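Q: Here's a chain of 106 amino acids. Please give me its 3D structure as tokens.
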Amino acid sequence: MSVDLVALGAPVLPAGMFYRIRPHPWGWIEFEIRERRRFGSRLVAGSETHVDPTDYPTTNEALTIGCQTANDRRIAALNRRSAYSRAAAHAGDYETGGGVPRGDLR
């Protein structure tokens, strides 16, 4: 059975990414965002999400919320990595008096 998730309200993913939805043995629905590779696919970090379908009035709503949550988590992980990269660019030893990295003291 195939459902058009975007028509239901799920976010459109960037090119090369797709949703993988599968049942979890404990009764949840498991959502992942994956990136196509030359051979197979890889999990996009931070996008794993579980949804209990009994918490929603319809299956379509559970699917939409699961996809939205997975995409929100993907974006949050991107933002965390971006913030880390910006902060890591300033790594080094600094003098307390002038804020000049030790390597630049001449």
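Q: Can you summarize the key feature?
A: DSSP finds two helices and four strands in the chain.
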